[in-house]
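Morning - 6-O-phosphono-beta-D-fructofuranose inputs below, output right after.
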Amino acid sequence: MLKRVAILANGGDVSGFNAVIRAIVKTAEENNIECLGFIDGYNGLLKNNYIKLSTATNASGILPKGGSIIGSSLNANVFNYKVIDENGNVSYQDLSEKCVQNVKDDEIDCIFTLGGDSTQKSARDFTLRGLKVIGVPKTIDNDVACTDITFGYNTAVSVATEAIDRLHTTAETHNRILCLEVMGRFAGWIALESAIAGGADVALIPEIPYDINKVVEAIKHRQAMGKNFGIIVVGEGAKPIGGEMAVVATRDGGAGVINTQLGGAAQRVAKEIEELTGITTRTTTLGYMQRGGTPTAFDRVLSTKYGAKAMELAMNGIFNVLTVLKGGKLSYVPLEDVVGDNKKVGAVQGGTAESNVRLVTMDDDLVKTARDIGICLGD
Ligand code: F6P
């Protein structure tokens, strides 16, 4: 019998965090289970900083709200935690035992970890230390392994699509090429899907290193049809053949977290396009617009399904799994399959080298559809 469960939200925020929290709390209340929320993700777990969640108080009216009522932490790997002593000396320490002790002291029967692959990697590591954990897949990038979709992704695609629509009219008015940079560090799902939804001419994604001459060809082809404007969607992790991702800054958050800030991929493309075509080319970076604000109806429903399913799994004694959507059906997979050492799909180098990441594959319907209708993918 479950008595008390806790939620933590970790990693970059997405629209839908609150909808998941609400669904877990509501399902818990229906079954007389108490629900806590750790503040700022794994930081809250480490500091034992939590609040009680209930629909009578804080977990009501939050379905359409962006952000997270319990915060979220960036770069908080408690297995390799950055500690700065009073003399300013930096060290990295494994503080996971303290977290485990907190959970035992608080008599928490299960923790729900709302996050992407780094979050679920830590979740899996906690299961190896005896905690009962259920993950819920979050990220606007849609790149968590073993699920068809993460919450937050659909909202990000909607925001990007609206941006493309707006750029279209100004591009057409002034006969310009407009490049839109969207998020997607390793995976180009947002770029690809929004390019199709918004009717863009070119989509450059991290999975397909691009040849700028192919992009120029696509623009010239449009010119030959009398269209002197165009829209290019650039995933922030897109890189030219033989080139690197565009990085604006690095940080030192320790091992196991992402330490590079991406930016400039679209600007790099725009500069070359203008030089090679002579057409005025400008850049818009969508950035955090993709994460903030109210979730789409789709994300509200998906988040609610994921939250309710996670609580149902806990009540049925099924732990150490991730809730997933596969072929339209809610299900679950072992966390080990998602982030464990049995990598099957898309392991990438970098801060998440130990994790799986679900990349766009060349046989995906989105790739096929894009190619069918003549969207240039830079290859
Ligand atoms: O992982 C999600 C994501 O949105 C990436 O697409 C992007 O590179 C990153 O977050 C940005 O995070 P930060 O604000 O920490 O640089």
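Note: Confidence is low (pLDDT under 50) at residues 343-355.

O.
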